[in-house]
Amino acid sequence: MKHRAPQLKAIAPEVDRLLGPAEPVTDVLAALDRQYKVGNKPAVYFLEPDQPIAPHLNDLLKPNTDFLNAAARRAYRNGAHADAVTLYDEYFKLLAADPIKAQTTRTQRLSRTIALRELGGVQPARDELRGLLSLVESDDSTPAFIKGRVHQHLAICEWRLGDREVALREAKESLKAFSDDPVFAADKKQTEQLVADLKANKPLPPLAKVDVVAALENARVRFRARAALATLPLNQSAVPLLDQVLGPTKSPQEVFETLDRQYREQNKSAIWFLPLSQPIAPHLDELLGPLPAKVKE
User: Fold this and answer.
1) Dihedrals phi, psi of 109, to nearest 5 degrees
2) Helix, strand, coil distribution of the chain in percent, nearest 5
3) Which pLDDT tens digit goes with each residue over 152-187?
4) What is the H or E stretch that residue 127 is in?
5) d(CA 251, CA 230)
6) Of 45, 114, 258, 281, which has the highest C-beta tally within 10 A?
């Protein structure tokens, strides 16, 4: 005789009790529609189910503010500071037509100046931070952590430009903004270390020597090339655009020399450096190890 498993109770009533009753589909779609409009989404987001998407693909593939903001943060984390500055600039261009939303970009403006400073543009970053500081100080609605971070990074710029007295003053203003709120503990700790280093007259690690103007122009070229690749017709070659995105192809000789240096740094065996005219057989034992002794049956 087969035993029947007990029937499970419906979970829907419990879900409704925890989350509340589900909203009507029309209300959900209307809410999404409002969010997309506020976010300046392209027309493809508002298509009716019976309308084709193909005519709108070009608009869909164009960078939007969400994409640019995320890409800029990713570029900064990867150390691609020129690309980060360029992506933030494109982000601000898209927001220029929306002055209300543009007022909420203080975090992005701060991130752009940090990327510009790390690229080597310390003085223009300092000047932009001063303008941003004037803005946030005059607006009581600005969150404390933004004020604290603006003072913090302005202090670093002043330090790099050799004005330790102003740098110390800005660092102390940063500590005031962070106060004792545990939410800002990590930021405050960084500023405390900054104050200690300034008082101890410690040197800052040197920035890489980069032609800032050229680096930014190259980043803009790469951005335009990527945008063009996204909508490139199938009958056009992608090679010229790929050269702009990736840089010109290196010669085989340069590639081999680079590999040769890498192998030597990794202490590879002599077999890795054999000319093509020399046989590999005498080196197989070194590469693979000696053959095992024949096992007696």
Assistant:
1) -65, -40
2) 65, 0, 35
3) 999 999 999 999 999 999 999 999 988 877 888 888
4) helix 122-137
5) 28
6) 114
Considering only the C-alpha atoms of the chain, give the largest distance between any 2 of them, rounded to a whole number of Å. Answer: 91
Distance spanning both ends of the chain, measured CA to CA: 58
Q: Is the pLDDT of residue 102 over 70?
A: no
Sequence letter at residue 164: R
pLDDT at 166 (0 to 100): 95
Cα–Cα distance, 14 to 24 (Å, whole number): 18
CB 239 within 8 A of CB 232: no
pTM (predicted TM-score): 0.67
How many residues in the chain?
297
Token pair for 254: 């340069």
What is the rounded average pLDDT for all residues in the chain? 83
What pLDDT does residue 204 have?
85
Alpha-carbon span 169 to 217, nearest angstrom: 35
What span, in angstroms and rounded, lies between the C-alpha atoms of 118 and 37? 35
Q: Closest Cα to residue 260, out of 268, 151, 111? A: 268
